[in-house]
Amino acid sequence: MTSILDMKSVTDVITQCPDERSVIRMMMNEGLIRNSANCEKCGGPMTLRNRKDSMEWRCRIGKGDCSSKSIKTGSFFSSTRLSLTQALKIVVMWNGKYSSLQIAREVKTSPQTVCDWRNFLRELCSEIESTYPKIGGNGHIVEIDETNVHTRKYGRGKEKSDDWILGGVDRESGKVFVCQVPNRTALTLVPLLQANIDRDSIVYSDEWASYSQLKKYFTSHFTVKHKTQFVNLVGTRLVCTNGIEGLWSRLKKPFKQGNGTSEALIGSYLSEFVVRENERMDSSKR
Ligand SMILES: [Zn+2]
């Protein structure tokens, strides 16, 4: 049985799950939808029956039906009108970074529905992100930096807003954290670094004043001068922040392509970004 994570394209979906019922079986195996149900009326176990191209749960008493419910009940997909095949295609194509228009065409649904799904999946990423442990630890090197992105203040409006972002990359594990910050003072940045980086880490940063006390909070702290000095030789230690520079260029790509995000959505955009980085879903990184 194939896993949803192995599906990289619509072709994979079509070849591995050719009809709605095989999508249902795959989703049951993966725990994405329930594989048993109890009747809300009598509490008895329900059975599956074929209904049109799909299936549904029903409780049967004698020759009549006691109750029935949707196969999607109580799942991630409970509120969608789409078939599970359509929903699966959206998730797989979103994972593969297809455009909303490409997804809408393939799935034969409206761009608005795809947009709702994108926001829904981004919210899911926020939940996943909140379960991640601190990065670093075990003496790992963690590169940190701040950067800013320009977002549109009111959705499609022209007014731009400047948003500061703080981030870190664990060089050994490749795990990252990213968060939006209201300013770049030590009062703002230091507690966020402590919340996201294990204290048993070696931190590399630029010489921004807010980072001057980091030695107190982590195993050690080394700095590199940005722009003028790409690497800094401290004893035998070559300090550089190429890792975080790479992270920023990947993070900023959609903003540069002009299909940036509105200020209201930046938090969930960042969550999606972090989950893609940490789960290695982004093929461009490999
Ligand atoms: Zn019943």
Task: Explain this structure.
It comes from Caenorhabditis remanei. This protein is of the alpha+beta class. It has a domain of 146 residues: Nucleotidyltransferase, domain 5, CATH 3.30.420.10. It is 33% helix and 23% strand. The strands form three sheets. A five-stranded mixed sheet has the order 6-5-4-7-8, with helices on both faces. The chain has a three-stranded antiparallel sheet with strand order 1-2-3. It has a two-stranded antiparallel ribbon with strand order 9-10. Helix 3 runs antiparallel to helix 4, helix 4 crosses helix 5 and helix 5 crosses helix 8. The longest helix has 19 residues. The radius of gyration is 24 Å and the shape is elongated. It binds zinc ion. Zinc ion (ZN) binds next to strand 3.
What structural keywords apply?
binds zinc ion; IS1016-like_transposase; Tnp_ISXO2-like; ISXO2-like transposase domain-containing protein; elongated; 23% strand; Nucleotidyltransferase, domain 5; 8 helices; 286 residues; alpha+beta; five-stranded mixed sheet; three-stranded antiparallel sheet
Radius of gyration: 24 Å
User: Major β-sheet, in short?
Assistant: 5 strands, mixed
Q: Give the rounded overall mean pLDDT.
A: 87
CATH topology of the domain at 140-285: Nucleotidyltransferase, domain 5
Q: What is the chain-wise order of helices and strands?
A: HHEEEHHHEEEHEEEEHH
**Structural class estimated from helices and strands:** alpha+beta
Bound molecules: zinc ion
Q: How much helix, percentage-wise, in residues?
A: 25-40%
- What is the CA–CA distance across the termini? 26 Å
CATH C-level name of the domain at 140-285: Alpha Beta
Q: Strands across the major sheet, in which order?
A: 6-5-4-7-8
Strand content: 15-25%
Q: What is the correct CATH architecture of the domain at 140-285?
A: 2-Layer Sandwich
Low-confidence stretches: 282-286
How many β-strand runs? Answer: 10
Task: Tell me the name of the CATH homologous superfamily of the domain at 140-285.
Answer: Ribonuclease H-like superfamily/Ribonuclease H
SS summary, helix count: 8
Shape: elongated
